[in-house]
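I need you to check the entry underneath: sequence plus fold tokens. Let me know what the token row says about the fold.

>
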Amino acid sequence: MKSGGDTGASAPDPVPRVSVIIPHLNTPDLLIRCLASLAGQQLDHGDFELIVADNGSTMSLDRVRAAFPQVTVVVEPAPGPGLARNRGVSVARAPILAFIDADCRAETGWLQALVDAVEGDPAHGIVGGDVRIDFVDAQRLTAIEAYESVFAYRQRWYIETQHFSGTGNLAMGAHVFAAVGPFKGIETAEDVDWGRRAYRLGYEARYIEAMRIYHPGRTGFGQLARKWQRHVAHEFHDHITAGRSLARWYPLSFAVLASALVHGVRMFTSPKLRGIDNRVRGLGVLFRIRFWRFREMLRLAHEGEAGPLTEWNRSE
């Protein structure tokens, strides 16, 4: 795709400046919205390419192809967004790789911000950006929107203290990806794993606030619970495979429960929320989900297995 700053004819199939890779599974309407936000991006010079890595959708992509014929579509049938991203990388042609999820939309300037950041530090070149909730009604948030505004997608904290960026808003030099290696499969929290492998190799990610995208809030508590069921299962899987005992798992579960009291203060002080009503609604979800996570952690400890980690993205 040509950037807005280019004029005149160009050579056939120019090497793009950045490849944007979007894993997708059965959300064609959201994918169209995502691609529209990306197709409108402009670079100061050079081209970019868009790659959809479909993860075995049963819903047709004919409307997507018709609306965006310039987009490359590849298929990765093995379940897992990390594997889909790897498939997208395998056909990417640019020296910069950028990742965004199909249910997100990019703010104007997202692409230029990440390109500037990666090109400005080519030796390391891993950056992650801001993720905000896409409100249905910004004046009156749903309870889950209010909760997720404060506690979901804490990208600055992930990057600066936990040494990883969520893969829904991530970019790096292609040479860095090659050095770190591909994303792991569905049984692993691939964003955490990849980011920490990169960190151990000396590639330290940077937070770029101008790399802003928007993610729709979950529409019900069941969706939020499924998200945390997956995260808790990954944590339990990592805990057990690392040889740690259940005696260390139980205190962690109680810490999650107790954290609701501490983090309740953040709900009332966060600049990401306005209005006492929104804060009270968000507080209710905070206490409910922390109690749910506590019970789920105890359930896993009792049953001794993490469940069907290889099937979670086929059940939603």
Residues 2-11 have pLDDT under 50 and may be disordered. Strands lie at 18-24, 48-54, 72-75, 96-100, 105-106, 126-134, 169-173, 206-216.
